[in-house]
# Entry
Amino acid sequence: MARNQQLINALCRQIYHIGMAELYYYPALPLLQFIGCQHIVATSAMPLESIYYKYLGFLNAVANRNIPVIGSGVTHKNEVKSREKEFIKINKIYNKISNQMGFNQVIDLQNIITNVVKFIFVNNQPFMDFEFIENLFQEQQSPFSHKIIHIGGIAIPQNNEELNDAEHAIFNYANQNSLSVILVSFGTIVSGQSMTNDEVTNIAASFGTFTQYLFIWKIEDNEIFNNYGNIFSFGWVNQRAILEHHLTVLFISHCGINSVLEAVKYGKPLLCIPFMADQFYNSKALATRRAALVYKKENGDFDDLPEKINIALKNDGRIKRLQNKMNEVNPLHTFYQKMSELLN
# Structure
């Protein structure tokens, strides 16, 4: 896109008061500067990556605290080195285009993030992050701390969600038979096809031992489930509506950030089984606050899963405290307020 001079010229002829880009697609940030946006803001769909901690002046402190790297098994410093190589390539591309088009702008991603970007809206809340990270921002330990605006939960509707007919039937049955409901979902990317048949079989066998609970599992249908009367599988579920229901007592989740935010919003205990990306970070952050239990699926046999479920079912005190904090914040108002500052 940046190499399309006709498009760039067309964009430059317009007047933009605010330009917004997701940090995951960081090459868009120089483009916004390129076309003359008066104000640039960034968003992060997950907790901040290592490179941004460096630019904010927090990297050494974070690296020394055994805090996981987002989406990677390497160290923070190695992750930064890898990302900086990518940033250098992007800088070279934009600077070459700038010279060719006669703009003579010097494009530097680090400078854009630290000095040009007005705000970075992060899809998380400090009280759900590692306590050390929360304190870093609260104590304003960097001249750039004010840029970080937490809006986790902004996508959760204020109005109640509705169960579909099948879900209604399950909850009615649970209510009539004094049963509770456990929601199981590993997100939109991880599916039954991402797990071996043995893994699905072993998990189902674990669920089958909990006769006082009904399991709503977001997973492709599998004939294995025919052996269990308490497992109901669906390719899609009304996750928020199920979590909001008073009969739901546990959420077994991959712990992607949106699922974590919803669990906290509705005060449901979490048993985290992370697979990828930010899930390990989110899981560990909540576990350090004793608001979630993390299950490591290292061998895939899930033999001790029933034990972990029993422990997680008793762990609702800490999640209720986080729920109270979540109900005290208004991320949508915060977002409007900060954007209004740029418009005035």
